[in-house]
Amino acid sequence: MTFTIDSARNIFSSTQVPSPIPATIALFEQLNVDDKLALLWYAYTEMGRSITPAAVGAARLQFAEGLLNQIKQMSQAEQLQVMRELANRDDTAISRSYGFFSVNTKLAFWYELGELMKQGFVAPVPPGYQMSRGVTLVLETIKKLDAGQQITVLRNTVVDMGFGSDAAKTIPTDAEPLFQRTSPAPINVTVEGITEPTVLSYIQALNKDDFDTAIGLFAADGALQPPFQKPIIGHEAIKKYMRSEAQGLNIIPQQGIAETLPNGSKQIKVTGVVQTPWFGVNVGMNISWRFLLSPEGKILFVAIDMLASPQELLNLRPV
Ligand code: 45D
């Protein structure tokens, strides 16, 4: 029995509950551009309060500085136009530059723009703006999500803005600044039901930002599938991805189940909580990892999924 990435993607699928996040983003996508900006602004004024400002960091802003300075010089009407073009993914010079930013630089760019709005340097949502029915509806939908889902909606909408953002052509990995860990990551993790050294080492390596060790646990053609994305295949690509998007995470796994298959490979599902450096301990995301390990204990495939609800943390067996 050999595995393809396609068959691996389905392991434990009968234990999964569809996440409400894609449906929420689909509703958002139907809004017109001014409503999109207004909706995000209202959502952000709630959630943004839990951002740990230290996360942004001057180093991260250096990549966005040119663009931010350009925007500061503009009239209010021009500033609003730039934001519309970003949200519309229009093909403009600014939208293209934004499209080259890494995920965290995009978030830092908007964070800074929000600060500039508060300080009066950038046009905020127009004072007389009346929420449309569509905005009210999407806002109500977002309010029903848990905090981890809400910040994921916000993140994914920011990531999708700009022109050409879908391609994996971000700034060079080496230049990506590190998040300062404000509190040490959990070190001696135990996962109820799991003794598999590969899985425990994976979690420990991520908590230490030790991506070389983490990569060493993967088979040469092993793959990692982030939430709502296609699998990333091979050591180099996974390492680049982790360096850019997994640094500074707190991984707090809770329980798991391990099954050995007839050919000696293993499928393992672990559920738990992940904290992003953006929000620190303020927001926990309920997550599952679905690992497929070779008989030699190498990671052939791991999918990271956002759970539909905290109840799903306990969904380890088919229902
Ligand atoms: O004016 O095992 C708006 C992997 C517009 C690796 C704005 C992982 C209007 C392997 C945009 C609203 C990485 C996959 C302003 C694990 C406006 C692995 C500003 C998982 C001002 C576990 C908006 C990692 C702003 C995970 C500033 C799941 C919004 C990581 C800022 C998840 C939003 C991280 C921010 C998430 C959102 C981070 C900072 C969900 C951050 C979210």
Please describe what this structure looks like.
The protein has 319 residues and is α+β, with helices and mostly antiparallel strands. 40% of the residues lie in helices and 15% in strands. The chain is built from 13 helices and six strands. Strands 2-1-6-5-4-3 form a six-stranded mixed beta sheet. A hairpin with a 5-residue loop joins strand 5 and strand 6. It is globular, with a radius of gyration of 20 Å. The protein starts with a helix and ends in a 13-residue tail after the last strand. 34% of the residues are buried. The mean pLDDT is 91. The site of beta,beta-carotene-4,4'-dione has 30 residues, from helix 3, helix 8, helix 10, helix 13 and strand 5.
The average pLDDT value, as a whole number, equals: 91
Record field, number of beta strands: 6
Order of helices and strands: HHHHHHHHHHHHEEHEEEE
Structural class: alpha+beta
Query: Biggest β-sheet: count, sense, barrel?
Result: 6 strands, mixed
Distance between the termini: 26 Å
- Overall 3D form: globular
List keywords for this structure.
319 residues; alpha+beta; six-stranded mixed beta sheet; binds beta,beta-carotene-4,4'-dione
Summed up, what is this model?
The protein is an alpha+beta fold and 319 residues long. The protein is built from 13 helices and 6 strands. It is globular.
Sequence-ordered SSE layout with sheet pairings:
Layout: H1 5-8, H2 21-29, H3 33-47, H4 58-61, H5 65-72, H6 76-88, H7 93-100, H8 103-118, H9 133-143, H10 147-159, H11 197-207, H12 211-216, E1 218-225, E2 232-233, H13 235-245, E3 250-260, E4 266-275, E5 285-293, E6 299-306
Parallel strand pairs: 1-6
Antiparallel strand pairs: 1-2, 3-4, 4-5, 5-6
The structure holds beta,beta-carotene-4,4'-dione.
